Amino acid sequence: MKQIDFDKLEQDIVAGNKDAASDMLVSFFDSDLTPQERGEIMLNFAMIYARVKTKINQAYLESLEATLSDLKLVDQLEREGNEKVDLDDIRKRIQGS
Questions:
Q1: Is 22:34 a contact under the CB 8 Å cutoff?
Q2: Residue 48 near residue 9, CB atoms below 8 Å
Q3: Domain spans of the chain, in order of start
């Protein structure tokens, strides 16, 4: 049976090297495979998909958390700015009276 380097395939997919991953797959599937070999390959692909999807989801979650943190900071700065404007307005009213 012709072997496929699943670690290299996963690295190519994660790195966005679609052409390299595609070439590896086409070369592999052009060879004769028994039903058992085809099943093993499909199982390995499913495992790669799950790992890559998990990495993508983790990166997305980290990005969302960073964005949420930034928004909280902007919200806090806005509140502080509004409070300062309110205090300045109260001072002017007191001094103007």
A1: no
A2: yes
A3: 6-72
Identify the residue whose tokens are 């797959």: 25
pTM of the model as a whole: 0.59
Query: At 79, phi and psi to the nearest 5?
Result: -60, -45
**Amino acid present at 2:** K
**CB burial class (10 A; 0-12, 13-18, 19+) of residue 33?**
middle
Burial state string for 59-90 with b = 16 or more CB within 10 A and e = fewer than 16? eeeeeeeeeeeeeeeeeeeeeeeeeeeeeeee
- Residue 35 has which token pair? 């039903």
Tokens representing residue 96 in the block? 């103007």
* pLDDT tens profile 36-90: 888 888 898 899 889 889 989 999 999 999 999 999 999 999 988 888 887 888 8
Q: How far apart are the first and last CA of the chain?
A: 93
